[in-house]
């Protein structure tokens, strides 16, 4: 099934936006999820300063 020129163009734009969102959102999302889970038992508490240490 072939896409029309307009549909292919819109699909390309949506894919590009999706790539950009994934590119800039992956690391912050992983950090957020890690802070929400918390530290494992016996490990030091998680804090934002631990990211820089």
UniProtKB/TrEMBL annotation:
GO terms for cellular component: mitochondrial outer membrane translocase complex. Keywords: Membrane, Mitochondrion, Mitochondrion outer membrane, Protein transport, Receptor, Transmembrane, Transmembrane helix, Transport. One of its GO terms (biological process) is protein import into mitochondrial matrix. It is found in: Mitochondrion outer membrane. The keyword Transmembrane applies. The keyword Protein transport applies. It comes from the Eukaryota. InterPro entries: Tom7. It is a single-pass membrane protein. Its main location: mitochondrion. Belongs to the Tom7 family. This is Mitochondrial import receptor subunit TOM7 homolog. The gene is LOC108744674.
